[in-house]
Amino acid sequence: MTATATRVLVLNSGSSSVKYQLLDMRDGARLAVGLVERIGEENSRLVHTPLATDGAKRETEGPIADHEAALKAVAAELAADGLGLDSPELAAIGHRVVHGGQEFTAPTVIDDAVLAEIERLVPVAPLHNPANITGIRTAQALRPDLPQVAVFDTAFHTTMPEYAARYAIDTETADAHRIRRYGFHGTSHAYVSRKTAELLGKDPSEVNVIVLHLGNGASASAVAGGRCVDTSMGLTPLEGLVMGTRSGDIDPAVTFHLKRVAGMDEDEVDVLLNKKSGLIGLCGDNDMREIRRRIDEGDERARLAFDVYIHRLKKYIGAYSAVLGRVDAVAFTAGVGENAAPVREAAIAGLEEMGMAVDASLNAVRSDEPRMISPDYARVAVAVVPTDEELEIAQQTYALVNA
Ligand code: AMP
To answer: Relative to the CA of 322, which of 52, 84, 199, 209 has its CA 20 to 30 Å away?
Structure first.
């Protein structure tokens, strides 16, 4: 890496998509952002926004056969803005990797052994890790000389005590199949818990925070002095909160029942719980905006879906208050957490005895900045802290290659 290399490309490779951001680490500025979707189909689409120049969005449609073709198309777009991947200013590529198991507790420079280990974790992340591996291999082929760093969704949660990570099932079976609670959204929980401490004017080591990452996927975490001590997602991102299309916590016997009584096979149960449950299963919509609109029109199913969602959220706030013992802040983040004031209001309503309250006028403010929404008298700070997983990945990547 040369002294002038201050840019980091962040890649988030899914099974049929690649999201990317190019950042300048001198100030964290985004130089370009974009995504390629429907890779492998006839109508693939690349949307590129060159923020460093005119910021005018460019869209191209047409077949993009695979991840290699997708990344080459992204490289061509970046080169057209004078930001090509061959630039000496590019310091590293940071890859979001969903599952790092127990092995990866921190961002890691990728070599053959690391790639083999990520591959060994495919059985516990069959939907995500293969796409991440493809993204890494493709980026390596384009710039074999450049450091490539894996930033794991699970890493922040590896500090969970063993009693929080263990399922109470037969130990030999659990160990043989790596069945334990890993947690996800770790990059977001790390970033938001740190930013929340900053908002309180404290060092992360001094504060206990409950982070509520409420997007289409949703998870809660209990962070004590900067370290995660519990999180709501488990072996997979299905456990925990009610989500857009996922059930979250459920009696596991429901799955046997569906097989025995409803005649469903594993794949059908998998699809039911991951894609057809949560808010969409309860009311047919997974977008909180639409659910609120329907509630305002008096729609009972939308109301019930909202109430189920809030009840689960409250249970986790209560559980993590007990786990932490002392709570300094509750931080709402991601699409729902950052934008849906009624969700924040309802989740905290009635928790005054626990020192938690929301000020209606502060809660109504719309802003991209971290902000407090609790009244001055409340013992616990309730905050809205916009997440930025790409910036966190870029910062971790840059810090590692400069270490
Ligand atoms: P994410 O996965 O973090 O991108 O969050 C996506 C979800 O955020 C959407 O499915 C919506 O439910 C929710 N969302 C986004 N914008 C708003 C908004 N203005 N009001 C309420 N919910 C929103």
So the answer is: 199
